[in-house]
Amino acid sequence: MDRLDGAHAPELTKKVQRHASSGSFPPSGNEHPKEDLSLRLKKLTHAARCMLFMKGTPQEPRCGFSKQMVEILNKHNIQFSSFDVFSDEEVRQGLKTYSNWPTYPQLYVSGELIGGLDIIKELEASKELDTICPKAPKLEERLKVLTNKASVMLFMKGNKQEAKCGFSRQILEILNSTGVEYETFDILEDEEVRQGLKTYSNWPTYPQLYVKGELVGGLDIVKELKENGELLPILKGEN
Length: 239
Hints:
The chain is of the alpha/beta class. The protein has helices spanning 9-21, 32-45, 64-75, 89-99, 117-125, 129-132, 139-147, 166-178, 191-201, 219-227, 231-235, and strands at 50-54, 81-84, 106-109, 112-115, 152-156, 183-186, 208-211, 214-217. The chain contains eleven helices and eight strands. Strands 2-1-3-4 form a four-stranded mixed β-sheet. Helix 3 (64-75) runs parallel beside helix 5 (117-125) and helix 8 (166-178) runs parallel beside helix 10. The chain starts with 8 loop residues before the first helix and ends with a helix.
């Protein structure tokens, strides 16, 4: 019927709502609306391994309890996705019955309710929180994975379709002229990667080009390699 890759809870809700309202699900009597809500809630609680249902967003919590919950999760480097219950009244009310838990925030791991703020504080005090919730990868591990995501990886401002600085635009033109396949990462979308990669690579500016996880250099280096006829063999892994 439809597909959503990755854990993006709000988008998942929109897709389910759209298909429900369009009549994509066959009618099944008086219990149909209730079943639809249960299905939505089940999908939402499983949208990521660790799901936080809160008031507001991690960047802008809209109540003190939600703010405290986010602070605890971030302090323990826990990887989580969130859903703003203010964005969907049906979910806000329905989840209270679904989970038999009357207040927010609510934290789920693998679709199972762990509890609210008081429970999380108890788990933190007993040092159980770190064993229950998945850890976010350390920045260095994340950068290693990103630089090896494709054989040729370009970290730039913008993307293939829309470069957001002149240097990035020029390096795209050079790479496109080689005919070699490559992937890009928009550093403007992730400040942690943007700052961290400068230290990781010991290279202070963007764009940065990597081949098989190894830094080739920025625009000036790529221009020199192209002029010397060395760029294509490097991109193909022949050097």
